[in-house]
Write a sequence for this structure.
């Protein structure tokens, strides 16, 4: 076996040791509420700073909290099962697999066999800009709290900026790694795959593959399950002074009305005021100054949802049928490609009420009628930690849905 394997193992251990915030003993429970009261109770727990809801039903609970939490469930009569027994062990195991994974040999600075770091994403965009100077422009949407440029790529085959625009972003939530991978795949397909030429013939695409680069890098190096931005707010636990803000509660449209927290320690902290975060303010400035945007797609994970506004109220927008029809066509296309079916509907009605999301602001204030939040699939027991081996299949399965959206705008 020579010296390669021992070297790899040493590298693995070093990487594991670098992840200093340990989730040893943290468990994830899947709750199974049945009655309205039980659903209400679970919903009420979602903003408890000691709990981290990975989805509507899956909640990560610290070792100290497990006993009282299970007592509470018992009292409420809510059934549950253990989804992850030790979160840290699952994370370490996947990290190990990523390190052992072989490169995909594409010869380009991007890969779909592993999750790319911020620098790799930037390098890929730069490479596209120099290989395809007539259709690609790379720049930045703005600057994050920690001073990173937020990457922006514009794909246009002509028209002097007068064509309809599809605006795509991903990675507003740091730990949802499959989302930036999806955005990168869309970029690759549009720019490098000639069979998608019809999608860029008379439509421009403006794509922000990593809206929250600070949080993403932090989730790569220190704390896998980081969700928020990395701005400095009030200290709440340990030595970490940057508690950050849930950027998808920070848009100033019905801000803080529902489904958001005013506690800096909560995973759904809406921030001290609307648009307090440079990342959300940059998106606001860009989208409000670009009148040609006809479609907005924002990628998250996990849970297989195609959501449209509103997130702040259960009332449907007057044009909900158009939103619903298009989402169902997109869903059918990815089902035909082998994906499992997504739940389609308004985010309040099919997921939960949460104000201050980007989708609501884009529709309600910027006036982009077609606005969607897409929750890509999670991976088995990993949730956010969809194994790297599943990236390629996941993004290529959803691609036909993106194609349906693109064709719709091209035909307008
Ligand atoms: N999981 C997403 C979140 O919690 C869903 C957002 C849906 N949109 C909304 N405006 N609530 O941010
Ligand atoms: Zn999210």
């Amino acid at each position: 076996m020579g010296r390669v394997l021992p070297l790899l193992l040493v590298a693995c251990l070093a990487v594991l040791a670098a992840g200093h915030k340990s989730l040893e003993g943290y468990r994830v429970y899947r709750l199974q509420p049945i009655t309205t009261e039980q659903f209400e109770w679970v919903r009420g727990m979602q903003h408890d700073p000691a709990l981290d809801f990975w989805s509507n039903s899956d909640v990560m609970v610290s070792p100290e909290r497990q006993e009282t939490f299970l007592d509470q469930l018992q009292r409420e009569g809510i059934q549950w099962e253990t989804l992850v027994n030790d979160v840290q062990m699952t994370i370490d195991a996947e990290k190990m697999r990523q390190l052992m994974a072989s490169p995909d040999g594409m010869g380009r600075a991007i890969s779909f066999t592993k999750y790319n770091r911020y620098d790799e994403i930037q390098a890929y965009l730069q490479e596209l800009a120099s290989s395809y100077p007539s259709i690609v422009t790379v720049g930045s949407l703005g600057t994050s709290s920690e001073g990173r440029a937020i990457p922006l790529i514009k794909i246009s085959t002509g028209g002097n900026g007068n064509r309809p625009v599809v605006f795509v972003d991903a990675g507003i939530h740091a730990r949802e790694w499959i989302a930036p991978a999806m955005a990168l795949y869309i970029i690759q397909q549009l720019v490098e795959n000639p069979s998608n030429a019809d999608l860029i013939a008379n439509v421009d695409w403006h794509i922000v593959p990593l809206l929250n680069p600070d949080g993403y890098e932090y989730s790569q190096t220190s704390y896998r399950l980081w969700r928020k931005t990395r701005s400095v707010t009030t200290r709440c636990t340990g030595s970490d002074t940057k508690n950050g803000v849930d950027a998808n509660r920070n848009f100033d449209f019905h801000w803080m009305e529902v489904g958001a927290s005013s506690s800096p320690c909560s995973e759904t902290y809406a921030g001290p005021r609307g648009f307090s975060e440079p990342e959300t303010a940059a998106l606001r400035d860009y989208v409000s100054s670009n009148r040609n945007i006809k479609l907005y797609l924002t990628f998250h994970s996990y849970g297989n949802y195609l959501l449209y506004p509103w997130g702040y109220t259960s009332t449907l927008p007057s044009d909900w049928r158009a939103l619903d029809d298009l989402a169902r066509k997109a869903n059918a296309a990815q089902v035909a490609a082998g994906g499992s079916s997504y739940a389609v509907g308004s985010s309040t009605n099919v997921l939960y009420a949460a104000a201050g999301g980007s989708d609501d602001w884009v529709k309600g204030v910027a006036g982009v009628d077609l606005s969607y939040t897409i929750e890509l699939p999670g991976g088995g027991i990993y949730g956010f930690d969809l194994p790297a081996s599943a990236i390629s299949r996941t993004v290529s399965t959803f691609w036909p849905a993106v194609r349906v959206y693109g064709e719709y705008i091209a035909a307008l």
In short: The longest strand covers residues 293-301. The chain has two domains: 4-95, 104-221+252-410. DSSP finds 13 helices and twelve strands in the chain.
